[in-house]
Amino acid sequence: MRRFTTIKDIAKELGISVATVSRALRDAYDVSAETRKLVMETAKKLNYKPNFNATGLVKSSTHKLGVVIPAITNYYFSTVITGIQETAQANGYNIILYITNDSHDLEQKIVKDLSLSSLDGLLACISSASDSCMHFQEVIDEGMPVVFFDRVPADIKGSKVMQDDYNGAYQAVTHLIEMGYKDIAHITGPKDIFFTENRLHGYKDALEHHHLPFHSDRIVYSGFSQKAGEADVETLFGENNFRPDAIFAVNDRKAIGAIVALKRKNIRVGADVGVIGFTDDPICQIISPTLSTVAEPAYEVGKKSCELLLKHINKKTFTGEELVLSGELIVRESTLKGT
Fold first, then answer.
1. In Å, how far are 40, 43, 64, 149, 210 from 49, measured between CA atoms?
2. Mean pLDDT in residue range 120-129
């Protein structure tokens, strides 16, 4: 089988980085004319053929955008996709969904197997287990426009659209403190994910600014599901453990799991133990007691991500942008202490 020349081959031949080769092929502003000339000569010598129009060497739009996303079955992601799809269609683009099932291995396979010649750009929300995102860096280095949203990699520079996780968490915990709760636990997602770390920092700072102590045994790391929230409560209320009087959950699904587990223990939610989530899933208004939460701008995350990607596609040189969108504290019955 014939092996095609890649930008890695050009980089190796010249002894420069893949990123520099990629920028030179796209005629980026931060590459010298001398370096660009050398790269172009070497590309010609090695018979390099670009895979898609994003390098600027081929102009043939497919009007298709790829969307890599962990799931579509929960409210948040389905709303994000609605924002992406409506924006894409309004600009003459269709989207192709790639569902990772929140699996790093599947995500890696999907990205490596992408038919890059059939896409004009890529939107990506990384899986919760992504300890390395070099598979995304590789497609970026090849010249593909990529915008990350919601769960974004900390170690890749580029365009990102996020909700304000830090201030949302700070608001949530401050609300609990103002309602009279003093021993507040945090049930969060896996360690070292950018947005969960930001929410953890918001939690810690809210405690510190209100002169409440931080204890590491008040933090429980696990998945993002309702079942994980139920299990986290069992951990917090297990034998020889403390009994918190409030719980801040990293998302609404875990908060609902916490409510279910507390009810199972005949603990009154709100009156005995306050619970607050993060998302504003419609089920927050159905469950009893209704769930206080921080509403995420899910539709706007999708819309702004797609708009940013289209800007990226339509400009020959593009400097990555980071957008942070604010959430809104919504108070309901689950944080009404002593009722």
1. 11, 8, 21, 30, 60
2. 89
User: In residues, how long is the chain?
Assistant: 339
CA-CA distance, 290 to 333, in Å (whole number)?
5
Maximal C-alpha separation, the chain:
77
Q: In whole angstroms, how far apart are CA 236 and each of 123, 231, 251?
A: 37, 9, 17
Name the DSSP letter for residue 70.
S
Q: Is 81 helix (H, G, I), strand (E, B) or coil?
A: helix
pLDDT in tens, 85-115: 999 999 999 999 999 998 989 999 999 888 7
Annotate 297-333 with DSSP letters as a single string: -HHHHHHHHHHHHHHHHH-SS----EEEE--EEE--G
Spatial neighbors of 242 by CB under 8 A, at least 6 apart, are: 183, 217, 218, 236
